[in-house]
Amino acid sequence: MRKYLFFVLIGLVFWGCRKEKFVSESNWVVPIFESELNLGNAIADSLTENNVDGSINVVFESEYGVSDIDDIVQIPDTVEVSEVTLSSLVLDDRSFKDTLTLLEIYPASALLHNQTTILPGQDIQTNEGTVIDVTEDFFTTATFVSGFIDITISNDLPVVAEILEFELQNNDDKSVIVSGIFNNLLPNSSISKSYSLANKKVNGILELIVKRVKTANSSDPVLVDVYKGIRTEIAIRDLKPSIATAVFPAQNLVEKKDELKYYFGGAEFTQVKLKSGFIKLKILSTIEESIVLDYKIPNSFKTGQSGSLQKTWKVDPAKKGETVRVEEYFPIDGYTIYFWGKSNLVEPVFNHVYTELIASIEYSGIKRTLSLEDKIYIELGLVDLVPELIIGDPGKHILQSKDTLSLKIFDNIKGNLSLEDASMNLNFYNSFGIETLIDIKEIKGENTNNQKSIKLVSQDLLNPFLLKKAVNNPPLVASEYDITLDKSNSNLKQFLELVPNKLMPDLEATVRPYGTINQEDFAFDVSELLVNVRFEMPLKIGFENLELLTKQPVEFYKNEKISNVKEGSLLLKLANNFPISGGVVMTFFDENDKQLFELFNDPANIMKAAEVNPVTNKTEGSVDSELYTQLSRLECSLLPQVRKVELKITLNSKDAKRHPMFDDYTINAQLITDFIYENQL
After folding, report:
1. Position 8 confidence tier, pLDDT thresholds 50, 70, 90
2. What share of the chain is helix, strand, coil (3-state, %, to 5)?
3. For position 405, what pLDDT does the model report?
4. Contact 285, 323 (CB under 8 A)
5. 3-class state of residue 591 by DSSP
6. Which of 198, 302, 446, 579 has CA 20 to 30 A from 495's CA?
7. How far apart are CA 398 and CA 9, in angstroms?
8. What is the C-alpha separation between 124 and 104, in angstroms, rounded?
9. CA distances from 88 to 148, 273, 318, 628 (A)
10. What phi, psi does 547 have (nearest 5°)?
């Protein structure tokens, strides 16, 4: 329904001029414009509803937010910073064999090969050995934190090896790595000894020297085989270098399994489904090998995907003396993360996220130099988490809300009302899965035009009440609580008659006032704690000094047909269907909104009220009012400056009587000029 309360303003007056010898006087009587006005000037269409009989109800609704999920929980960024050297480096186990034959020990035995005879004892010493080169597929150089060389001597001679003395040297500088002596090794037997490589520097080209071999005489004839002798087997095992230039096997360099603790200010959460968020990774690496980082949150899932939240990054090898930098934010929208730690069977079962991180190198077949002094700096964690759903114990929160609402019902109304009746509904809406205790401390209304205020009073507002938690089957079903006020249980009628344009509720909401069971409270990102305010009043009202205003642009003498107005008057014709009379004031403004003058401000200028049919309680037609005002010469001279005109009608019900308002009530207004002007001939 359209309800417009337009008031008639000043129109265009055209005049012309011509300079001649003679001057005469003429009358210029012109209707400026006509307009129809209705209740739309006072109350917007969006705030009214029509009844079947055409009478009007005013309805105003406003939503007042007390709390959302940000008031219940905010998930802090939790990033773990690690700066670690490599915890270990591993090289593969290797073994090498060498044989010192009888022919090398006793060259004359060449004449006895495959014969059975007495074999004389030998005692030889030498500084020559066998070179072992492992640089191609093992290491070039290495210094070991730990590791072992196992030396196994096997006597394949038919006589006792009384003394076997050996040394294992670095071939370049002849530095001794290990040395040892074996005694009285019987024929066809073996003996082993282990030697530590801790703190040893070993090059990739080694030399094994059997420095002394002493054999006993055979007591009986023996079969001579010159190609058999003393076999030496070198096994290098459990190698953990502190630095090495080598072809490294695939291995884990860093292994971390942590339970990251989150702090929620007293809240205890067991599960969070993310609307959005990221894994933040920042890496600084000086390691001269490609690093593969595997990050996993085992206790997590995403609907429609298999497996838990897992991400793998690959970091390029660093050049010698340089640092490789990697920084990335990996989105994890839609994942659900359990905050019970590694297991929900072991305390604590809330506010802990179990993560696993492995930094490894893959086998590349490329020789690299790695050191335990090489560092890898890692920032890794969850940031910018926005929950879609949280489950657990939100903790006790006391929320104060003292916001101010604008009551748009009375935006265009100045003055006082007299109401027949009105109702106000307060609908408290809770879509959190959390109980909330509501305490209405005060609801106050204020009329900022006259600086008066009033407190809404009712027994129904005195005691706190419990809003039950929402239920999520699904769908999510909110809990609601209604308080309805009218003149029978409150001072609402007097409250609204103040014409308050500001509503100031003072509310206290205690979230989870009595604890929670099994940490099963919940909150969605769409969860809200709201108060829906609805006012409804039949527009049966009385007015006391109620001001209705309209202001419109206007321009006099646009065509300049009148050169000089000598005198003039204005006639305002009003046809009023409303059963209420009103005083009239018309104010004229220039283009800067500066007031020039006022007209019709005589108390005798009254718009008459229409008569009401006592049966229908409605006016049957309009009543005419004609208001005159004389313009002074000064006012006539200011007319060309007029750009805006404001018409104010102050309504007053007779004896404060209340009248129902109907949608066809109108005021028709017509403004007519009557100017006497000078015309040169």
Report:
1. very low
2. 5, 60, 35
3. 82
4. yes
5. coil
6. 579
7. 55
8. 10
9. 16, 38, 18, 105
10. -95, 125
In angstroms, the Cα distances linking 486 to 408, 454, 457, 496 are 20, 16, 11, 11
Output b/e per residue, 67-91; b: 16+ Cβ within 10 A. Answer: bbbebbbebeeebeeeeeebeebbb
Q: How far apart are CA 482 and CA 426, in angstroms?
A: 6
> Nearest to residue 379, comparing CAs of 88, 77, 89, 75?
77
- The SS3 assignment for 313 reads strand
The C-alpha atoms of residue 401 and residue 341 are separated, in whole angstroms, by 36
What is the residue type of 32?
A: I
Identify the burial level of 43 via C-beta atoms within 10 angstroms of its C-beta, where 0-12 means exposed, 13-18 middle and 19 or more buried: buried
Under DSSP, the state recorded for 562 is: B
- The Cα 536–Cα 420 span in angstroms is 12
CB atoms within 10 A of CB 616: 11
> Residue 353: CB partners within 8 Å, gap ≥ 6?
78, 259, 260, 262, 297, 299, 337, 339, 341, 382
Per-residue HEC secondary structure of 8-61 comes to: CCCCCCCCECCCCCCEEEEEEEEEEEEEEECHHHCCCHHHEEECCCCEEEEEEE
Q: pLDDT value at position 426?
A: 92
**What three-state secondary structure class fits 624?**
strand
CB 374 within 8 A of CB 286: yes
Judge contact between 376 and 254, C-beta under 8 A.
yes
Phi then psi for 76, rounded to 5 degrees?
Answer: -75, 150
Q: What does residue 108 show for φ and ψ, rounded to 5 degrees?
A: -70, -15
Residue 198 near residue 177, CB atoms below 8 Å: no
- Structural contact between residues 493 and 419, judged by C-beta atoms closer than 8 angstroms: yes
**What's the pLDDT tens digit per position in 437-451?**
999 999 999 988 888
Report, as an integer, the average pLDDT of 4-22: 31
Please tell me the distance from the alpha carbon of residue 478 to that of residue 375, in angstroms, as a whole number: 54
Beta bridge partners of 302: 335
Looking at residue 423, its amino acid is S
Chain segment 403-432, per-residue pLDDT in tens: 888 877 766 666 667 777 888 899 999 999
Let me know: does 426 contact 66? Beta carbons within 8 Å.
no
Cβ atoms 262, 78 nearer than 8 A: yes
3-state DSSP call for residue 315? strand
Task: Output the pTM of the full model.
Answer: 0.65
Nearest to 320 by CA among 285, 286, 366: 286
Q: Which residue has the tokens 């459990």?
A: 238
Per-residue CA distances from 70 to 182, 437, 527 (Å): 78, 18, 10
Residue 45 token pair = 């269409």
| Tokens of residue 471, six digits | 């239920």
Cis peptide before 475 (omega within 30 of 0): yes
Nearest-CA neighbor of 560 among 2, 13, 15, 7? Answer: 15
593: left (phi over 0), alpha (psi -120 to 50) or beta: left
Strands 606-607 and 581-589: antiparallel
Both ends of the chain: CA-CA distance in Å? 55
The structure tokens 């002394």 sit at 212
Integer Cα distance of 485 and 348 in angstroms: 49
pLDDT tens per residue across span 220-256? 999 999 999 999 898 989 988 888 888 888 888 888 8
- Inter-CA distances, 377 with 240, 327, 582, 601, Å: 22, 11, 82, 83
H or E element that contains 180: strand 176-185
**Which residues lie below 8 Å from residue 186, measured CB to CB, with a gap of 6+?**
155, 160
Q: Output phi, psi for 577, to 5 deg.
A: -90, -15
Sign of CA dihedral 638, 640, 643, 646: positive
For the chain, helix (H) and strand (E) counts, in that order, are 4, 50
